[in-house]
Amino acid sequence: MADVIVGGLFQTPRRQMPRLPNTRRIYSDEGMFDLDGYLERIGLSGRPGIVEVHRAHSTSIPFENLDPRRGVPVSLAPEDLADKLISRRRGGYCFEQNLLLAAALRALGWNVELFLARVRYGAPPGVIRPRSHLLLRVHDGERAWHADVGFGQGTLLDPIPFGPGGEHEQAGWRYRVVSDGPEHVLQQAQADGWADLYAYMPHPNPEIDVGTINWWVSTHPHSPFVTGLVVAIQDAEGKRSVLSDWGGELTLTERTPTATSATTVTMEMVPGLLEERFGLGGFELDGEGRPAPTTLKRATSSRSTILG
User: Fold this and answer.
1) How far apart are CA 194 and CA 276, in angstroms?
2) Does residue 14 carry a pLDDT above 50?
3) Is residue 130 within 8 Å of residue 106, measured between CB atoms?
C-alpha cells in the first residue's frame, strides 16, 4: 500500500526534489529471477500453484517502509529487489512486494499484468488520492486472478477472481470487488458495513508508471512513507500485527476479524519489536532516532570517526 497525500505535490522547489532514478528496468525479466531462492524465502519448494505462492508470500515477507523512513529511496531494479527481500530477508511496500510476486509467478509460467490503484481507505470525504498502490492480474490459462500481497494493513491472504463478483472469506476476513462507475473497488467487511480499500481502472499500466509513482512515494517530503513508520505482517489464521505512527502515536496494533488490541510503544522499543514480531533482525536506532540496519550504522559511525 502506498497511501500518499497529493496536497503540495508541486509546492516543493525543484532544487529540493530528489533525482528521478532510471525507470527503464523494473522486475520483469523472469530469466534473471532466482525462483528457488524466492520459494525458500517463503517456505515452499518445487513448482507450487498461484494460490499457494500468494498465501505463503503474504504470511512470510513483512510490509515495511524502513528505507524511505530513513531517507533511502526504494529501488525496483531486479538485483536490488532480490538482494533486499530474498537475500537480506527484509520486507518492503506494495511496489516491492507485488513486483517480486510478479517475477515469481512469471518464472512459474503465468502471465502477469500490473495495475495502479487509488487508496480509498481512510481518505476524508471528497479527497482523491493518486494511483499509488500496485496490484496484479494473473492469468493461469483458465481464469484471471486479482493478486495483492502488498496492501500493508490488511492485504489479501489468497488471490481472488479478477473483477466484480461475490464475497470471498479468508481466515475470517471478508472481501469483495464492486463496480463504481468505470472503476473496480476492492472492499473489506467491517462491523459497520463494507469499507472501500482501493479503486482501480480495469486496464493495465506500463512499468514506467509504476517506477515513477514509486519514486514519488519513497522520496517526496509529503509522503507518509517518508515522514512516518509502518511495519505489518499477518499469519495464516488471520491475525494482523501493525507497528505504525500514522495515527499520531507510535502504536503496536494486533487485529483479528473479531478483536483489536493496541499498545503505545516508544521508538527505543522498535528494534526489538522488529525482530520479535516481524522477523526483521539487525536494526538499531541511528543518530536521528530512526531504525537503521546495524551494519550501516556502524559503518557510518566509523566513517564519521575517520573524517573527524
Assistant:
1) 33
2) no
3) no
Domains annotated for the chain, with CATH where assigned, are 14-232 (3.30.2140.20)
Angle at CA 124, nearest 5°, toward 147 and 210? 35
Contact between 43 and 257 under an 8 Å Cβ cutoff? The reply is no
- Inter-residue contact 134 to 186 (CB < 8 Å): no
For residue 307, pLDDT over 60 is answered with no
pTM of this prediction?
0.88
pLDDT for 67 beyond 80: yes
Which three cell numbers mark 248? 499520531
Closest CA relative to residue 89, chosen from 268, 275, 273, 272 = 275
Positions marked active-site: 94, 133, 148
The amino acid at residue 244 is S
Average pLDDT value over all residues in the chain: 89
As a whole number, mean pLDDT of residues 150-171 equals 96
- For the chain, the residue count is 308
How far apart, in whole angstroms, are the C-alpha atoms of residue 151 and residue 155?
4
